[in-house]
Task: structure prediction
Amino acid sequence: MKRCNQLIFALFTLAMSQTIQAAPVPLDRVTVQINEGIILESEVAGMVKTIKANAANAGQKLPSDTALRTQVIERLILTRLQLQMADRIGLHIGDLQLDQTIENIAKEQKMTVEQMKAEIEKDGTTFAQYREQLREEITLGEIQRIQVQRRIQVSTQEINNLVKLINEQGLKDVEFQIGHILIDVPSDANSQQLDAASKRASAVMKRLKDGDDFRSIAIAASSGPKALEGGIWDYMNINEMPTLFAEVVGDAKTGDIIGPIKSASGFHIIKIMDARGLQTKEVEEVKSRHILLKPSPILSEERAKSMMDRFLAQVKSGEAKFEDLARQYSEDPGSAAKGGELGWADPNIYVPAFAQELNSLKVGEYSEPFRSTHGWHIVQLEEKRTTDATDKFNTNRAHQLIYRRKFNEELQNWLDEMRAEAFIDIFEPETNRG
Result:
C-alpha cells in the first residue's frame, strides 16, 4: 500500500512540474450575469474577433476596442435574454428540424449538404459549430415571431387606407438604405438625463457633419437595434419602414443627415446611405395548397414526418385525395376547411422554408415533406401568375407591408422591456474600468 501511495505521489509531482513549466493558459471568466445565466469572457472575445475580421475584409473602420466591446456585450445580453425566454416556454429546435433547415439552405445555394459542409469548414468553422449557430438563429427567429406577433394588430381600416393611398399615388418607386443612430434615454429620465442625452446627440450630429465615418460612430454610440451592423438597415420602401423613418425620408437625398429627432426611446439621427429604384416592378404570385402537422409532446417530429410520407404516397398513388387529407389532418385552421387551399399570394409572405419550397416546384408538382418553423408540410404548387406590384397592390401585400413595419417597431419595444425587467450585472476587468 505504501509503495502504491509513493507511486501516486511521484506521478502527481511530475504532473505538477510539467504544469508549472508549461506556458500559462488564461482561465475563462464570467463577464455578465444575466438572470439565472452567464456570459463568459470567451464569448465576448470571440464575437469581437469575428467583427474585427469581417470589418477588415470589408475595409470598414471600427471604433475603439472599448466601444466595440460595449456593443458586443449588449448584443450578447439581448441574445441571451431571448434564449432564456425560449427555454422558459419550452421552445427547442430539434435535430430533425435543424437537418431539414440545412437541407433547405443547401438547396437554395444549389449545393448538396456535403458540398456546403466543405465550404463552411474552409473558413475554419467546424460543421458542428455551424449547426449550433444555426440552431440559435432559428430559435431567435421563432421566439421573436411568437412573442412579437401577438403584440401586432393590423386593422382592416389600416389596410384599406394603404391600398387607397397606393391606388391614388402609386407605390413610391424608391427604396432607401437607412443609417440609424439612437442615443437612448431611460423611460423615467429626469431633466438632467434628458439634457445630457440631447448634448450627446448634438455632439454625434456635429461629428457626422464634419465627415466622421457613420458606421464607426454608430457602433461606438448607438443603442439602436442595428448598432453592431454600423446602424445600417436593409433597403426598404417607405411603406414598410418604421414610422419614424418614413416620416422624415420622403424627400431626402442620398447623403442627407436628419436629426436629432426626439421620441420616447431617445434621440434619433438618420442618414440616407443610399437610394435606388424598386428592384421588382412585377411580382410572381403562386396558388398553392398544403397540409400541416405540428409536432408536440404527443406527436413527435419523427411521427409527424412519417405521417407526411404516408400522405404523399397515398396522394401520388390515387389512394387518397389531397383535399380530403387536408380537411381531416391539417393543423392550419385557415386552409384545412378549404382542402388545404392557400389561394393566390406572393410566396415571400410565407416563412423562408415554405417560400423556398414553393419556388423550387413546377406547376402541379408536390413537395417532399419538409419542416418550417410552423411544423411539417406537404405543399402543391397549383398555378403561377405575374402581377403588377405598383398599380395593383392587393390586400395581402398591404397587410404584409404594415405588418413588417409594426414588427420592427414592436420587436424593439419587446427587447427593451425584457432588458429593463432582467437582472444584469456586468463584471469588467480592472483594465477596462474608467
